[in-house]
């Protein structure tokens, strides 16, 4: 039995903390929900707490959101594939775009579906992920604005996700200036500059967000209370909205050093052991979760005196030292999780998803039987 728990009270607290911060700075924000991987339980929880736009980079997740809450505005936050144009228009109210041919495909589908599809034009600002080059921005905008059933509602940029390039006041001022130039050249108005994300939030605390940067897309800080810019935490926010729990399936006192000639393990590594531990023993526990479901490097036992030794495909091994807490087979151990740990667990169908620790034992029996 292994499961990930979402604490609704802590999520609600983080949401209101951010909402107040953005309201004070006259910024509209949207929730990035891709971490939830379209899970119905967790999405329902989020939608009960938030009335904001919801962003995702997976169409199936946007479809789930629309099925759960048809009036919720949705944003597809990566350049769409042309072949997905029909579904993009159907399930996303807004999409981020960098290719004229794709926008034309979205236009054709919008006409077919009798809709106006909104787009944000993404601009390259140094991160070298998605975004058109600044020198081409005016021409691109001039072409896009003439495409039928397409409404340009903003320009945006992405930073920090690929090469770790951090946002700064200078970059954001430049982006605002680009918007003003386009508006002047094309005699138009662009409502939004979507240039904020979790990594940009610390600039708000320093009053370094230029006027005109009026739209943020936030996921990690909402769910983890993290200061992504400084790789730290934000005081007043919860870092433990999520928690992993796994059951002990074996507990035995064993040698601390393995015996025999060592080759590579499942992940292609040859573990190195400190010979100072030769001849010593400790209590080892095996849990019913492995690297198919989690990455041990991104988990941290909540209780002290526990060390993660490693994991195979479907088991994780812990060193309990002398087992001073008197763990037994069938007991569970809790772990704190970072972003990557939650993302891996959410993508695993073998890790159950639980709201506020409300566990249904019958459900686990069904899962075990079906596996």
TrEMBL record:
UniProt feature coiled coil, ranges: none
Needs which cofactor? Answer: pyridoxal 5'-phosphate
Q: One Pfam family this chain carries? A: Ala_racemase_N
**Keywords of this entry:** Isomerase, Pyridoxal phosphate
User: What's the domain of life for this entry?
Assistant: Bacteria
Q: Which residues form the Alanine racemase N-terminal domain?
A: 7-225
Reply yes or no: does the keyword tRNA-binding apply.
no
Protein name, per record: Alanine/ornithine racemase family PLP-dependent enzyme
Q: Which organism is it from?
A: Chryseobacterium edaphi
């Amino acid at each position: 039995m292994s499961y990930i728990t979402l604490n609704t009270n802590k999520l609600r607290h983080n949401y209101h903390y951010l909402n107040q911060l953005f309201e004070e700075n006259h910024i509209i924000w949207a929730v990035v929900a891709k971490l939830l991987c379209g899970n119905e339980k967790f999405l329902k929880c989020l939608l009960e707490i938030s009335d904001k736009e919801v962003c995702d980079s997976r169409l199936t997740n946007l479809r789930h959101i629309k099925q759960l809450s048809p009036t919720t505005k949705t944003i597809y936050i990566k350049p769409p594939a042309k072949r997905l144009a029909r579904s993009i228009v159907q399930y996303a109210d807004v999409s981020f775009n960098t290719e004229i041919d794709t926008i034309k495909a979205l236009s054709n589908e919008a006409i077919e579906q009798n809709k106006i599809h909104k787009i944000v034009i993404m601009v390259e600002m140094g991160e070298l992920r998605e975004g058109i080059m600044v020198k081409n921005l005016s021409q691109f905008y001039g072409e896009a604005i003439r495409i039928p059933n397409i409404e340009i509602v903003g320009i945006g940029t992405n930073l920090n996700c690929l090469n770790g390039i951090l946002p700064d006041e200078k970059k954001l001022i430049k982006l605002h200036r680009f918007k003003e130039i386009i508006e002047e050249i094309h005699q138009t108005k662009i409502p939004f500059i979507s240039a904020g994300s979790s990594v940009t939030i610390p600039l708000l605390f320093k009053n370094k967000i230029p006027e005109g940067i009026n739209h943020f897309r936030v996921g990690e800080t909402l769910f983890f209370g993290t200061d992504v810019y400084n790789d730290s935490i934000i005081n007043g926010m919860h870092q433990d909205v999520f928690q992993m729990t796994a059951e002990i399936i074996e507990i035995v006192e064993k040698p601390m050093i393995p015996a025999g000639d060592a080759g590579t393990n499942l992940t292609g590594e040859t573990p190195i052991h400190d010979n100072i531990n030769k001849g010593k023993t400790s209590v080892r526990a095996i849990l019913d979760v492995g690297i198919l479901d989690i990455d041990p490097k991104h988990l941290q036992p909540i209780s002290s005196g526990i060390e993660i030794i490693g994991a195979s495909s479907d088991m994780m091994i812990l060193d309990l030292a002398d087992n001073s807490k008197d763990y037994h087979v069938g007991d569970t151990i809790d772990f704190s999780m970072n972003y990557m740990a939650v993302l891996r667990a959410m993508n695993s169908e073998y890790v159950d998803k639980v709201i506020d620790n409300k566990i249904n034992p019958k459900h686990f029996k069904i899962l075990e039987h079906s596996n």
